[in-house]
């Protein structure tokens, strides 16, 4: 079996963490008897510098012709002054739209070795293992009308519109219920149905999908977004799969990320179209770029998600996740998760340690 993977390292720490991620991917392929053909493309700020735009047609074509896309991160202070239409982050939005990636999966799992690295109490976060399913191509980030207009009295009026249609809600609800079936069989749907009509529709459709599409083995609960934000901090272990709109998911998944101690630990997958796109949750971390300080584990765990969701290589994915856990249990830490009495390592060394554990473990 041979798979083509588009590798888009991006900017800042993107290329550093991607080097460790792709080495793990090549190693997993070798150990588990499949082939990966990695083809690299330039995106984000690097693409603006080289081609004057954040995403070229040839890179877009490469992603569409691949089995999966592995992405680093894009952006940085160098490009912050540019117009929104050509900012590095536009490439991300364009890729999501072009590839039809309507479902963003962000697992938030606390490795027990890191329980005291969180800003919350150990007894609150220990055992946290939840999955945020965020709708990614609809809602207020894309709804029309939007913009800022001048009013006759000289003041301005800004508008964004939260829009969801029945099919958009149905398909994301199905993703959440299917994911829950492979986990602890509970879905929490998050909305603001007491105030926003659009999320009243969200609640109605999620309830109907649950009832009519054969998901009666899954427990479904509805929670208002403000209460959800509070519950995430109060008792994160109550959640299994959380499904929500684009904007609520954006905010809640960053909040949930902090339960694990560092954004440098979190992988994500964007699914829905023919090609899945996989990226660490963090950005380009310009403050530590080029210093071998970045944590590559988010990218390495992202590779595991790619293997599981796009290549169906579950054993290889499990093996990578076990190796990450073993390295953390061994007391090795990058700067972002450094604790007393732990062994400090850089990005390259952390990658090497994970590969060593993968090699030593059984498939
Ligand atoms: N998906 C993406 O491409 C994406 C996502 C978020 C931010 N960004 C861009 O990245 C740039 C910086 O954004 P930011 O500072 O808000 O967020 P960031 O995630 O890049 O950094 C936030 C903090 O976390 C630290 N950090 C992040 N990843 C780390 C890792 N792997 N190891 C160790 N420490 C890590 C950074 O050093 C920084 O202190 C901006 O240009 C932003 O637009 C891109």
Radius of gyration: 21 Å
Strand residue content: 15-25%
Helix content: 25-40%
Structural class label = alpha/beta
- Mean of all residue-level pLDDT scores: 95
Q: Total domains, how many?
A: 2
What is the helix tally?
12
CATH architecture of the largest domain: 3-Layer(aba) Sandwich
What is the CA-CA span between the terminal residues?
Answer: 17 Å
Number of strand segments:
14
The CATH homologous superfamily of the largest domain is named Isopropylmalate Dehydrogenase
* Ligands, deduplicated: nicotinamide-adenine-dinucleotide
CATH topology of the largest domain: Isopropylmalate Dehydrogenase
Major beta sheet, specifics?
10 strands, mixed
Biggest sheet strand order reads 2-1-3-12-11-4-5-10-8-9
CATH first level of the largest domain: Alpha Beta
Q: Globular, elongated, flat, extended or rod-shaped: what is the shape?
A: globular
* Residue windows where pLDDT falls under 50 for at least 5 positions: none
Q: Sketch the topology as an H/E string, one letter per element.
A: EHEHHEHEHEEEHEHEHEHEEHHEEH
Write the layout of secondary structure elements.
Layout: E1 2-10, H1 14-32, E2 35-40, H2 45-51, H3 57-64, E3 68-73, H4 89-98, E4 103-109, H5 122-125, E5 129-135, E6 147-150, E7 156-159, H6 166-181, E8 186-191, H7 197-212, E9 219-224, H8 225-234, E10 241-244, H9 246-257, E11 267-271, E12 276-280, H10 297-309, H11 314-329, E13 332-333, E14 343-344, H12 347-360
Parallel strand pairs: 1-2, 1-3, 3-12, 5-10, 8-9, 8-10, 13-14
Antiparallel strand pairs: 4-5, 4-11, 6-7, 11-12
The structure holds nicotinamide-adenine-dinucleotide.
Residues 13, 17, 73-76, 89, 92, 263-264, 279, 282-288, 294-295, 298, 336 line the site of nicotinamide-adenine-dinucleotide.
């Amino acid at each position: 079996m041979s798979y083509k993977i588009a590798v888009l390292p991006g900017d800042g720490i993107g290329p550093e963490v991607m080097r460790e991620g792709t080495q793990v991917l090549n190693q997993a392929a070798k150990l588990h008897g499949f082939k990966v053909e990695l083809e690299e493309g330039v995106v984000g700020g690097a693409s603006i510098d080289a081609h004057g735009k954040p995403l070229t047609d040839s890179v877009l074509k490469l992603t569409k012709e691949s089995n999966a896309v592995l992405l680093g991160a894009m952006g940085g202070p160098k490009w912050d002054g540019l117009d929104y239409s050509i900012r590095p982050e536009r490439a991300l939005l364009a890729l999501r739209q072009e590839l039809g990636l309507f479902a963003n999966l962000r697992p938030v799992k606390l490795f027990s070795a890191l329980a005291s690295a969180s800003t919350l109490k150990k007894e609150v976060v220990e055992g946290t293992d939840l999955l945020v399913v965020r709708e990614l191509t609809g809602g207020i980030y894309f709804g029309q009308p939007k913009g800022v207009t001048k009013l006759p009295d000289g003041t301005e009026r800004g508008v964004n519109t939260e829009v969801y249609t029945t099919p958009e809600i149905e398909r994301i609800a199905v993703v959440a219920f299917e994911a829950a079936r492979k986990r602890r069989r509970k879905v929490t749907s998050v909305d603001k149905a007491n105030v926003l009509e659009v999320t009243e529709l969200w609640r109605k459709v999620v309830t109907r999908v649950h009832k009519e599409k054969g998901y009666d083995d899954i427990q479904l609960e509805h929670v208002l977004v403000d209460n959800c934000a509070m519950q995430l901090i109060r008792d994160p272990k109550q959640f299994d799969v959380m499904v929500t709109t684009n904007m609520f998911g954006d905010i809640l998944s960053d909040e949930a990320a902090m339960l694990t101690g560092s954004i440098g630990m979190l992988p994500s997958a964007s699914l829905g179209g023919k090609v899945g796109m996989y990226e660490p949750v963090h950005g380009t971390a310009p403050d530590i770029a080029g210093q071998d300080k970045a944590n590559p584990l988010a990218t390495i765990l992202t590779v595991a998600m790619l293997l599981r969701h796009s290549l169906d290589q579950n054993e290889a994915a499990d093996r990578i996740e076990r190796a990450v856990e073993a390295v953390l249990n061994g007391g090795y830490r990058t700067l972002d998760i450094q604790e007393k009495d732990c062994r400090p390592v850089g990005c390259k060394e952390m990658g090497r340690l994970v590969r060593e554990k993968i090699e030593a473990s059984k498939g």
